Fold each of these.
Amino acid sequence: MSAHAESVPSQRHPLVAFALRWLLTTNHKEIGSLYLWLSFGLFFIGGLMAMGIRLELFRPGIEFFDPEFYNQLLTLHGLIMVFGAVMPAFVGLANWMVPLMIGAPDMALPRMNNFSFWILPFAFALLISSLFMDGGAPNFGWTFYAPLSTTYGPPSTDFFILGVHLMGISSIMGAINIIVTIANMRAPGMTLMRMPLFVWTWLITAFLLIMVMPVLAGVVTMMLTDRHFGTSFFEASGGGDPVMFQHIFWFFGHPEVYIMILPGFGIASQIIPTFSRKKLFGYHSMVYATASIAILSFIVWGHHMFTTGMPLVAELFFMFATMLIAVPTGVKVFNWVATMWRGSITFETPMLFAVGFVMMFTIGGFSGLMLALVPPDVQYHDTMFVVAHFHYVLYPGAIFGTMAAVYYWLPKWCGHMYDERLGKLHFWTATFAVNLTFFPMHFTGLAGMPRRIPDYSLQFADFNMLSSIGAGLLGLTQILFLFIVIKTIRGGKEASARVWEGAEGLEWTVPSPAPHHTFEEPPVLDPEASH
Amino acid sequence: MKSLAGGLKSGLSILALWVGARDAWGAAAIDMREGVTEMSSRIQALHHLSLWICVGVGIVVFGAMFYTMFAHHRSRHPTPAKFSDNLLVEIIWTLIPVVILVSMAIPATRALIEIEDNSDADLTVLVTGSQWKWHYEYVDFGISYYSNIATPQAQIDNLEPKGEHYLLEVDNALVIPADRKVRFLMTADDVIHSWWIPDFAVKQDAIPGYINESWVNVPVPGRYRGQCTELCGMGHGFMPIEVEVRPADEFNAWIEDQRLANELAGEAAVAARAKTWSIDELLPIGQEVYLKHCATCHEPDGSGQGIKYPALAGSEIAGGDMNAHLDRVLNGKADTEMQAWAPQLSDLELAAVITYERNSFGNSTGDIIQPLTVYEAR
Amino acid sequence: MNRQRNGKHTLLLVGLAAGMFAFAFSLVPLYNIFCEITGLNGKTSTTPSTLADVNNESSRHVTLHFMAKVGRGLPWDVRPVQEQLTVRVGEMQTTHYYARNRADNVTAGQAVPSVAPGRAAQYLKKVECFCFTRQELSAGQETNMPVRFFVSPDLPEDINTLSLSYTVFPQQGSDVVAQTGGMPDE
């Protein structure tokens, strides 16, 4: 398998050799790094757009961007963060860690792995280039509701559609690779129920991806034919229905939300036991809870659409189904607390991010539960309360999760310890900034501020200014993070193979930094140490 | 320095909010509004119920977390315990949330069933959203009108101080009677909009080609404000809703006034048609109409915004065949943001704005279009 | 080695992805069937109803509101001749919509009906309707278009007001007319 990863002959020009090496690599660690760097770069681009949004919202009045450009910013911010920052970051972590955690020499399908990565830069180049086209970038929000995105979409919508197709193909290939790797390449003795939870959550995520990304591809294909080939899936004038768009979109969209959170659950479930020096509490119920969340995610999409004029029975069904999700999610949170309970806890940076994730994610979960109730949802829907809710879920879940993972595994990747003082500074400033940015949005939303507006009436001014200040600070903390990562790659205290004294799992049995090829001979598992 | 002082002021006013001061709308601005209808206050109560349940659960969970983070820190608890499961505990903490959820679901379901009861309305209003204004039609009375944002562009551009109801004021508010069940039928002309008045707890999507229903019964006369809540293009933040609730007898008087006003407008239209207008008379009227209705997309100087909102300066339509221009303005263009203006503007306004467009921004056709021409083309 | 198993699993998963892509498209007919059963969105049947349910025995009355909207770019006036009608449940009724083509060309429109409340849609039985086919009007033509319908006696007891709205959208042909200008010469 790993024979594909031979380095390119060195008589070429060093730059060409460097480019070819990364362009042609089939090594899971290198591809993992590529994914992580791409997502980090896109995270900065999407973040810059968020800065633009918060700048315009700093105080009432239109000051910096006209409303049309504002809509393009908020659309691209959403699309880039969802498809460009969060998903590739998780795929990158999976590439790096899944083979190491299950004792495999590489991913099962290394060439497809290379291909699925290299599609992405093109997909995002397409998407971002639309900013410079006549008519501007997509301006209909990341949910691209018809007919705003079909009949009324700018010409660049077609580039958006192509971009989404490419991202979809990449995600599906990535997911297939992960499932096949987990299914076939586990070390002898690594039964399913002995797999680390990060692997479990990714296995379930990969199935979600394979089941819903094609639905997204279907819905954008319908958009394309509606726009150019005379169909009318979503056009009332031709017997179609714009509400059907929302049903199909959210059939994709809700599982997508869990795609962005389940690997984060896995990461927390790796880190909390390590720094509590105690085994994960309720391993089996963690696995079952993750699976139930994934299954439930297919039957709750209607809760995004309570104001579209749904029949009463449908509203009731989606309300009850959504509330049910609180049960397995609660189980996970309780299990994490129980893992810490009577452990021997220390708070290195990964643990700080993991605990921060659990706490703030729980707050996002609470507002999610509130949103599930149809009558109050009428008041919450499409207000800043919803924006607060999903940023509380996604920022701690996806971004803090990824950062926790980076701090946790970075010493394994590059052989150096990061600067603990800077890491802690990063955590505390980021946590302060996240809460300063997103908590006031609960208030503005409840007080009646709709989302996706470039200007607002005066009673929302104070909290918006606070949010904007928080967002600026949050932007700065990312630069600190970039600095810490680069500093760690370039040098620092040497990391041991185990790195963390409480760490368990196969990834800690290989040296730090992890050599180019690992587990060419499958490791032997201790048959006693089962869950 | 100014911004520092502004920041300090905001800081202080936030503090004032926290100590219980009330905002201009009369409610604390950190909580869901109680509103003025029976349903809106029930919804607020449901919101409080779920909020306090979440706070309670939060206190327990976060309390446990903080306790263990403190008490089981390695410095105090150097030897970790060995347990990693406990079936009984796991069953208990699966069941307790179920009980809590049921206690929230029951009142929510009761309220929902009532919200969905649209029967026995005293009055029906057809609400149509279009980019970026609302249209109200009293189907029982044959009265209808458009409702546009009334906040001056100069306030939005920070050139003038902002008024008390900045972005929440319209030229023609929806008028409904107090203490009556009013049924709203919602639809849209172009994209999906959503009609929301927080104080009524009514939020309903307006979907092109489909009609949705909602209702309200407002006991207290007054003015209530809200906004469009579904992203509907560039003017999404600028299509407010204002509802004036009048006592029932005043509402009936208002209906009569509207009928009278319609008759007067009809007479004025007849008079406008009978007259031959000069370009000097039409241009100022046309400019006013243009700035109010057309400049959002085509820009005040007619330069447009790229491919989506074409420039009128030097355009083939505004500088070409007059009938084509008239047709485009009256009927709009299918599948674009260019809407049909025939139902929205009077003959005189249409004649004036078309004349203005054909003789401004460097267009110099010299054409004058008369209200009579518009009338005949309707 | 795992290679064979890898290939088999990959194929299976690609198949699953392809199946889900097809499933997305199958959601369209599924959704329409679902709408027709539950009246989601107030869609009414696009084909004529039969007379099987007509009966004149009920004494229950319901009020119908009629409304019309004209889609962008169609130079038509459309309005109900009667805006409101109180009908006996089960009784055959006829009402008309007035339409006029303001252009001096032939233009065509397609009416799309919607009923509120949505769950009443399936009980509003249209025997004849201008919305079943595309309508063409010649230059300046005025017409009264009929709707023959009855309200099914199965209409749930709690519904006593129905609203029927037609949105008439421009159809191929008329679009071109509207854009090249088809106004009467003065």
Amino acid sequence: MSERVIDILLESFPKILIPGLLRTIPLTVLAFAFGLVIAVIVAMIQYANIKVLKEVCRFYVWVIRGTPLLVQLFVIFYGLPGVGILIDPFPAAVLVFAVNEGAYASETIRAAMEAVPHGQMEAGLCVGMSWWQIMRRIVLPQAFRTAFPTLGNEMISMLKDTSLAANITVTEMFMTTQRINAKYYLPLALYLEVGFIYLMFSTILTRLQHYGEKKLAAYGKR
Amino acid sequence: MAILTANGIKKSFGDTQVLRGIDLEVEKGEVISILGPSGGGKTTFLRCLNFLEQADSGTLTFLDETVELAKANKKQIRAIRMHTGFVFQNYNLFLNKTALENVTEGLITARKMKKEEAVKKAEAALLKVGLSDKADAYPNQLSGGQQQRVAIARALATDPAILYFDEPTSALDPELTKEVLAVMRDLAKEGMTMVVVTHEVGFARQISTKAVFMENGVVVEAGAAPEFFDAPKTERTKEFLRSMSSKDV
């Protein structure tokens, strides 16, 4: 590797890392958090079998899972202005990623809720607890434990997917790399470099996931 | 004085009529065992009394309040559940809570009891079932018999006017069955009002004040305890008791 390449790589490293810390990570964390809220609500509606709402949730999951993320980004960012709705790039990305994550995670959480033995719901009712109390204190904590590893995977997957936000002008890591490359034309080295930074981020997330799994070790299991 | 009177309880699942009009009267301090072959409707009947199943028709008078089972509203259902305890065949402990927390949970959330007070109550209940030393154990660290005793403590701690047991020992081996039956025997002695669905005929004979034989969704025979077991009036009851006691421990 020539000295020039090394110099450019060293110089560009912080230039890529900073949008990573300021855009990629916040986008991932925000979208994941909102996505989780959506997912829990959607999962609960399906678990509780609420008639019309359940169909609405099914439709939502069907549409979101059945269409590409990139298309969803374009519809929201480039499409909606056509009907007078303008959203800034970053919030638009958060919105799309959250809605997307909500659909996938709702299935994960719903399955985890259904894996909680139903007898505990009956036992809760018999000691006078309300459906909500049982949901909040008994069912959801157990479901969350079951869903945790899968949710961790989904978060790592989303971290990488945020590179798609470059397409709607969010200056996250990937777009920044593209810009640097346009200046120096070193595609191999620069794209390997951004790949390495993604790898760093996802490694940290993986570690956090393992740590969390240990902390949440099954109740009373050694 | 009857604390519970059930009248004409009917329940169908699809085309199958599981309960064809069941009546039951329970007086304070009585221990009533409900016997009968599997699929006879015993469990469904018990679950209807606590609204775990909604009966199609029939009335329930409990602590001087009468409700129509099919039309009971949330408030009525909750009021009844607040004064009854239910022990399940599969224990149904809260798996994310310790033994102690299993008992305090309903006291704190449903009864708004202060934590210290709830813990005191729970400790007393666990002492009663002989599990004080397991207060901090999670359900999957306990044997089936221990889990069922925690479940009994959970039901007891709410000071129920009546305790329902739905085949409480069916999932247990003979050894563990003994420890659960011993706890139930103590409760019966103390005058706890209990309705017990069971296959343990020998045990039922010992603790019951009254027994009911149910089959195909109807009460075939009901009567005061020693006579019911020693001199059943119907042929069918006789035959059933004979077949059951032959495998009694």
